Amino acid sequence: LGRRELDLPVTIFEVMSRLSDEHKAINLGQGFPDERGPADVLDVAAKAILEGWNQYPPMMGTPDLRQALAAHGRRFYGLDIDWKTEVLVTSGATEALTASLLGLIEPGDEVVLFQPMYDSYLPIVRLAGGVPRFVSLKAPDWSFTRADLEAAFSPKTKLVLINDPLNPAAKVFSRAELELLAEFVQRFDAFAVCDEVYEHIVFDGRQHIPLMTLPGMRDRCLKIGSAGKTFSLTGWKVGYVTGAPHLLQPVAKAHQYITFTTPPNLQTAVAYGLGKDDAYFAGLSSGLQAKRDRLADGLRAVGFEVLPSAGTYFVVADVSPFGFDGNDEAFCRRLTAEAGVTAIPVGAFFVQDAPRSFIRFCFSKRDEILDGAVERLRAYF
Ligand code: PMP
Ligand code: GLN
């Protein structure tokens, strides 16, 4: 390719899913639900396609979805969002992240990233010419300190990229942590790009707190969401960004030459879905919480040390109890080939100081699949 920024390995999710298929393993690696998604949302999409709603929609997104997103912000977080100027629909959160970083970063700008981090972040920061500065979260609670932020922020900091709830660590940031972060963002006159795709998947009565809702942060944050996570429809790739016009405009400029638009029929179905009743949103978290407990109990019984999971549909397990040799990816490959169960090495979410004994399991699967995986692990260890 001739560009160092694009000279990249194949993403770990694709690598492990292919390996899993090859070995006919139970795939608890790549994060995707194995259910069909809400029937009424599917129905709205099918009707929209058949009724002919299939041409380019407006570049910013269909009015119905933008209005639904403004209403969603008000309903869940008390945010007052202007659907005409403060909402952009993208082809998945992946595009939202890419457009946000390409739109906001100038070459040489510093970007604060928290490790572990989702695998698309660093390549896009680099592609935009940004200079990454890392904060390494400390297991098992994935905490950070004021001193960590002092070391990462500088007068060159343009933005911080935060993922809350955090994949793969399953951490939900506390209000105190968000306040500390907000203090630094304001002190260094920076912005925050907030990847909140798991906003509706939080456990044990927790509340998700968008950084945007903290004092002084409304006009410094872009908030990113994904219908893939909120409606268990990862293949649809309907994502969205909300934020003040001065931040959103450059993102929209990047978006117009990345994908330009996102399928209108799917947007209409997501607009409908965002209006579903409270029981739907509560049920998403409670259903997944039960699955978290089911898999975590099973893994513990097999001998894994299981870390807490406060949100997302992932749980991290420490494999040290198995007399492990220090290479988490090799461990995951062996587990796939020999035990018939696939997980993702957590080291893949780090660029430095990677822990080497953590692996991530996805529990957004039918109960019999989770039980089958635990059964295979029990037989293997
Ligand atoms: N950010 C995080 C933290 C994710 O886990 C995912 C899920 N793959 C994405 C972004 C991408 O979301 P989408 O599928 O909507 O592009
Ligand atoms: N977000 C999903 C995960 O963390 C995977 C998405 C992808 O395959 N790129 O597993």
TrEMBL record:
Domain Aminotransferase class I/classII large residues, every copy: 25-377
Alphabetical list of Gene3D superfamilies matching this protein: Aspartate Aminotransferase, domain 1 (3.90.1150.10), Type I PLP-dependent aspartate aminotransferase-like (Major domain) (3.40.640.10)
Molecular function (Gene Ontology), one example: kynurenine-oxoglutarate transaminase activity
Enzyme class, broadest EC rank: transferase
Record InterPro entries: Aminotransferase_I/II_large, Kynurenine-oxoglutarate_AT, PyrdxlP-dep_Trfase, PyrdxlP-dep_Trfase_major, PyrdxlP-dep_Trfase_small
Cofactor: pyridoxal 5'-phosphate
Classification via SUPFAM superfamilies: PLP-dependent transferases
Transmembrane segments: none
Keywords: Aminotransferase, Plasmid, Pyridoxal phosphate, Transferase
EC nos: 2.6.1.7
Superkingdom in the source lineage: Bacteria
GO CC, any one term: cytoplasm
PANTHER family on file: FI04487P
Similarity-based family: Belongs to the class-I pyridoxal-phosphate-dependent aminotransferase family.
Protein name (Swiss-Prot/TrEMBL): Kynurenine-oxoglutarate transaminase
Organism of derivation: Azospirillum baldaniorum
